[in-house]
Amino acid sequence: MIGRRGQRTARPRAAANWTTRRWLRVGVTVAFAVLALLGGLGAWAMARSATITSDLVDTRSPALTNSVRLETALVNQETGIRGYGLTGQKQFLQPYQQGVKDEKAAADRLGRLLVGDRPALADLHTVLDRAGAWQRRIAAPIAAARPGAPVPSAGDRSARGKADFDRLRQAMTTQQSHLLDARRNAVGDLERAQKLRDWIFIAIAAVIILLAAVVSEGLRRGVTGPLTRLSADAGRVTRGDFAHRITASGPADLRTLGTDIESMRRRLADELALSEQRRQLLDEQAVDLKRSNEELEQFAYIASHDLQEPLRKVSSFTQLLQRRYRGQLDDRADQYISYAVDGANRMQVLINDLLAFSRIGRVHNALDPVDLHTVLDKTLDTLSISIEEAGARITREDLPTVAGDTTQLGMLWQNLISNAIKFRAPERTPEIHIGVRQGDGLWQFTVTDNGIGIEPEYADRVFVIFQRLHTKDRYPGSGIGLAMCKKIVEHHGGTIRVEPTAEPGTRIAFTLPDTPPADAHG
What we know:
Blueprint: H1 2-16, H2 20-87, H3 93-113, H4 118-144, H5 154-238, H6 252-325, H7 331-359, E1 368-371, H8 372-382, H9 384-390, E2 393-396, E3 401-404, H10 406-422, E4 431-439, E5 442-449, H11 481-491, E6 496-499, E7 507-513
Parallel strand pairs: 2-4
Antiparallel strand pairs: 1-3, 4-5, 5-7, 6-7
Helix pairs in contact: 2-3, 2-4, 2-5, 3-4, 4-5, 5-6, 6-7, 8-10, 10-11
């Protein structure tokens, strides 16, 4: 009992471990086996019907027909002999002679048709034997008599000939009766074979329909159903419901696939939970960083603003000392005073730049239509002395009107052009070209010069505040110009970078949104 029960439970478990391929292989094999069996039955039914039809058409019907022809030939002989015996006229022998030929032909054909059919051949031999006896005793002697007058012996032979021919007729009737019964049996066999064939084909059609229904239902339950449920579960997960559990069902490989997808969902859910925690942490840090930046900007603004007055006093008094006591003290004292004046002046420039840097984004936030062509003209007018002293040649393309702040964009042009003039190559006449093109929803500007250039490894560093690539003695400045340009461009929704160039010099490229000025206030 225990062993049988274990076998019964082991079989479903083994079937549960079947993959889709194995289920399909077994199903196809069973289907082909059933179809082959049904095809064999159908072929057998068709062959049986064809055999019976061939026997009926090629044997039974022709045999009955030739039997009738044989009877007709013998009757023609009997009629001809009787007429010749009574009249002696030679024309009565013609039906007899033709009947003899027809008898031989019908008997030969009938003998060939009845090969293998012993009862039918026995009937044929009986007919032929009695026909031969009648011909020897009655027909042949009368036919051999001289024509022209009635045969004297015809009357004597008439009674005996009638008895012999009656026995012959009885034999022919028996033969035809047997042949007719055989034909009827063949017709009955054919009808039964055709009915059996029809039922077999109806059964084949029913089995095929049933098999198709079973295959369809099996595919629905074993393949398409589990795949549809798996797809629906996966779809819910892809739409963001990562808490939805994916249920695995169907064959072993589909269950394995569902389990793998469920494992992936769990990992994604864990990673998303961790990512959400990190995002919340980043949001908190971003808020802290924004607050810190605002405080730093506020501090820079206040510090630079509040340092203006003390620094002006320091600068004024040190310059007053320099003018009043120049030459009255020793050379060392004059040098110290000169250092103090220079430091105070540079500190004032630095504080002014820092104040301007801190104001970007805090004041002048309104975006209005700005004609960059006009802004550049004003900038060049402001820098006219530096341009003239350096002998710089400045060319430009037609500049568009953009949405922005006029003051900040003027500072952008001023810093870029003044840097191009400041960092010129001593051996070359400064040449500065301002280019522009439109594409991808942006205006793309370039400021190209033929100066000393910027090494590629410093392309990002130059935009960091207070980062200098040269000493203050060689190139004066606070190191805040390009950092201010970057802040202005980013405040307007663009980007700025140093582009590599094959020719000596520097190319600064920046973008501004291609936003219609009328929509800028939105």
